[in-house]
Amino acid sequence: MRFDIITLFPELFAPFLASGVTRRAYSSDQVAVRLWNPRDYAQGNYRRVDDRPFGGGPGMVMMIEPLQACLDAIRADRAEDPAEQVPLVLFSPIGRKLDHPAVERWAQSPGAILLCGRYEGIDQRFIDTHVNAQISLGDFVLSGGEIAAMALLDAVTRLQPGVLNDEGSHQLDSFNPSLNGLLDCPHYTRPEVWQGQEVPPVLMSGHHAQIERWRRDQSLEITARHRPDLLAQARDSGHLTRKDEAVLAKIADGL
C-alpha cells in the first residue's frame, strides 16, 4: 500500500510518520508514504505556486501548472498501468464525510494520491480533470488538507495486519462492525480505587459472559445518550437483539 501526498508543507508530516504505534508501518514501508511539494515543480526564480483569483476576492488560488507537473512526476514514479491508476483524492468541504466503512475500504486498497489544498483553494480545472474523490472530516474548515491526510493515514494504517500490538484491538473500536456500528464501552485499569471511585465490580469478577453483557449494555447506553443516530442505524440494520431492546427501554426511562 502506498500513499503519495501532494503538500506545500511536507515538514508537517515528519513527526507524524515517526511517532506512535503506526510508525512501524511507515518505517517498514508496509504503508509507504511519499511526500511531494508542488513548489519543486514550479517555474521561475520564486517557484510560485499560487496567484490571485480571476474575478477578484480575497486570498490566493493554487495554480495548475505546478500541480500538473507534480502529479505527472508521481504517476511516473509509481509506473502505473493507465488502466490501474490509483485515485487522486482531494480533502474538501464538499467531500463525503470520512467514516469507518470508508476507512475500511481504503485499508483494503492499494493506496491513493492525496492532494492537500491551501489558501482559498485549487484551480477548478485541475480538480475537474484529475480528482477522483473528495473527502471531508466534518462541517468545519482547516487551513489546509494536511491534518485531514494524517487522519486518513492513521485510520487506515492502524487496520493493517501487525501494526497494533494486539491484533484484536481495532475490532472493539467505536463504529466497528463487531459493535454493530455502536460506540465503544468505558475502559478501566489500575488502580482499582482512585479518589474514592471504584472500577465496576463486574469487571473484577472474572465472569466473561457477564463482562461481555456489561460492555454491550454500556455501549448501548453511551450510543443512546450521545449518538442516537448510530443507534437508529443499528436498529434499521437488524443488529439489535431482544435483550438489547430491553436494555434500551430501561435506558430510555432514565433519559
From TrEMBL:
One Pfam family it belongs to: tRNA_m1G_MT
Entry's Gene Ontology molecular function annotations: tRNA (guanine(37)-N1)-methyltransferase activity
Domain of life: Bacteria
GO biological process, one term: tRNA N1-guanine methylation
Ranges for domain tRNA methyltransferase TRMD/TRM10-type: 1-232
One Gene Ontology term, aspect cellular component: cytosol
InterPro entries on file: Alpha/beta_knot_MTases, tRNA_m1G_MeTrfase_C_sf, tRNA_m1G_MeTrfase_TrmD, tRNA_m1G_MTases_N, tRNA_MeTrfase_TRMD/TRM10
Coiled coil: none
Subcellular location per the Swiss-Prot or TrEMBL entry: Cytoplasm
Keyword set includes Nucleotide-binding: no
HAMAP family, A to Z: TrmD
Matches recorded under NCBIfam families: PRK00026.1 (NF000648), trmD (TIGR00088)
Protein family: Belongs to the RNA methyltransferase TrmD family.
Protein name (database record): tRNA (guanine-N(1)-)-methyltransferase
Gene (name only): trmD
